[in-house]
Design a protein that fits this description.
The protein is an alpha/beta fold and 548 residues long. It is built from 19 helices and 18 strands. Strand 6, helix 10 and strand 7 form a beta-alpha-beta unit. The two termini are 22 Å apart.
């Protein structure tokens, strides 16, 4: 089947917002105690960020170059992250309620910003009204089949142990396979819970009434104006017909709605055009972190999350190029590659700069890669100013609006500048990709024009090593061209006259721990020294981003 993905995502730059921690508006009344905005975040504390606070800071995001927002859950919940949903059809009043979402959507859309919401459809919360109904009425409840209850225990009148006193907090450094299966909770608490966490009863998505309820939720918020869904722990719902019907229902309301799944590993099976449009691209994030962080990686911090500790370790340029090419050419269709959500960090990971021992150069290099590789970049709020923080709750601190002295302006300028370059040159959003050099700690790749992506070809050069290196580029398609540096804050300077491509090769010298972006310009006929009789302009060569 032909794989179709939303066209607008190809040009998008996402910004992920954790609603309780981004911005607080005086227009949203708060019912009581809140943590001080500038105090260290805690697991259960609320700081009072809300949706009107986001609306009041949209100009900042537009100035940064952002074109799409991805929100962590916004529906009624008794947790600050709101993955414990108790009403899927109402925005949490702490965030301003439905009216605040209406104002935010209207203001965002007026500025050309799309808005993607977080859907938690694998599990709900102890406060979710059907679950509460069973807790109150036991075996008599019509909702007993909405979850995986111990039916014998219900029939015997034994109470559900939804609030056990002997509960241990989740340790993300080590989550055994048995716990991830979530089966022990059936006997321990009287119902299955996600990862055996009693606060998260697993929904029975095989039940037709549950499915219809969740599909109705998905349709409702798309009709309300949301532009897509990010699907939490999507593969925990193993019945593919659920997601196939989910896609049909959502796309019937808005064919351009974006459906992106939280999947941490490579898995082509579910990106065949009948379920999700894309994944959160954690494998690419791991590769970028491993390459740019290298000797700066903080093993102690990485061990705080079992998935990161297993996938991030120093690699050289050749290995990085191999991993990138695998994701682009071997696993996924070009239509999928173009809309993969390319992140560096999220609410589920330590902050990028903290994973790299506070080394801001690693973050700058990673940002250049994120903004120039195929796919849609996604900035975790605050990474543009190099916010630090270890694993949850450390990575979920409040944005320091009133403390600009803590902002790293060099990173902010680089992020703003590279987004502008991405917007200026279509090849970075829709062009072909080819690795043209990889040696030691340095690599370079070509983004070339194809049909639908006009303009000059660009070469991106990254030196993640600690020494200056002359890197020889293999670019026969650029014979008869000169490479000029694209100027932007934080990028390495290239000699004013540029670098000429001779016999399909050019040598670029890049300082240590730095990056450069080079623009190809055709030499005048009198200067064209190309000896390649088969030379063709790069405007007539190249393949889509996921083709060689």
């Amino acid at each position: 089947m032909t794989i179709e993905t939303p066209d607008w995502v190809r040009d998008a730059v996402f910004y992920q917002i954790f609603p309780d921690r981004f911005a607080r508006s005086e227009r949203v009344r708060k019912p009581g105690h809140l943590e001080p905005w500038d105090s260290p975040p805690t697991v259960h504390g609320f700081k009072g960020g809300d949706l009107l606070g986001v609306a009041e800071h949209l100009d900042y995001l537009v100035d940064l170059g952002v074109t799409a927002l991805y929100f962590n859950p916004i529906f009624q919940s008794a947790s600050n992250h709101r993955y414990h949903t108790y009403d899927y059809l109402a925005v949490d009043p702490l965030l301003g309620g439905d009216a605040a979402l209406r104002e935010l959507l209207d203001a965002a859309h007026a500025r050309g910003l799309r808005v993607v919401l977080d859907g938690v459809f694998n599990h709900a919360s102890r406060g979710f009204w059907p679950f509460n109904h069973v807790m109150e009425t036991g075996a008599a409840s019509p909702y007993r089949e909405w979850f995986y209850f111990d039916q014998e225990a219900l029939e015997a009148g034994r109470p559900v142990r939804a609030f056990p006193e002997d509960l241990r907090p989740l340790d993300t450094a080590a989550v055994p396979d048995e716990q991830r299966r979530g089966t022990a909770s059936l006997h321990a608490y009287g119902y299955r819970a996600w990862w055996d966490l009693p606060a998260l009863p697993k929904l029975n998505t095989d039940n037709p009434e549950v499915r219809e309820y969740l599909f109705g939720v998905a349709e409702h918020w798309i009709r309300f104006g949301a532009d897509g869904w990010r699907l939490d722990v999507a593969l925990e719902i193993t019945d593919e017909t659920f997601w196939q019907e989910f896609r049909r229902r959502v796309k019937a309301v808005n064919p351009e709605a974006y459906i992106v799944a939280e999947v941490w590993h490579e898995e082509p099976r579910y990106l065949q055009g009948d379920q999700y449009d894309a994944y959160m691209n954690y494998p690419l994030a791991a590769a970028i972190t491993s390459f740019t962080g290298a000797d700066h990686l903080d093993r102690r911090v990485l061990r705080q999350h079992f998935g990161l500790d297993a996938t991030i370790s120093p690699i050289d340029a050749a290995e990085f190029a191999r991993r990138v090419e695998r994701g682009l050419f071997e696993l996924y269709d070009p239509a999928v590659v173009a809309v993969q959500l390319n992140l560096l960090g999220t609410h589920d990971t330590p902050r990028f700069v903290t994973m790299c021992s506070g080394d801001v150069a690693s973050l700058r290099l990673a940002t250049v890669l994120q903004m120039t590789l195929p796919g849609a970049p996604s900035i975790y709020y605050g990474d543009e100013i190099a916010m630090a923080g270890e694993q949850d709750p450390g990575s979920r601190a409040a944005f320091p609006w009133d403390w600009p002295q803590y902002w790293d302006r060099s990173v902010l300028d680089l992020v703003r500048g590279t987004i502008a370059i991405r917007r200026r040159y279509p090849v970075l959003r829709r062009g072909a990709y080819r690795t043209v050099a990889a040696w030691g700690g340095a690599m370079a790749f070509l983004r070339a024009p194809v049909e639908g992506a006009a303009g000059p070809a660009l070469v991106v050069v990254i030196n993640a090593g600690d020494a200056e290196i002359p890197l020889e580029l293999d670019v026969p398609e650029l014979a008869g061209h000169r490479l000029h540096g694209v100027e932007s804050p934080g990028l390495a300077a290239i000699p004013a006259g540029g670098v000429e491509v001779r016999d399909g090769r050019a040598t670029v010298t890049v300082p240590p721990r730095s990056a450069a972006i080079l623009r190809a310009e055709a030499l005048p006929v009198t200067e064209n020294r190309s000896t390649d009789p088969d030379y063709r302009s790069p405007a007539t060569t190249g393949t889509p981003a996921a083709g060689r």
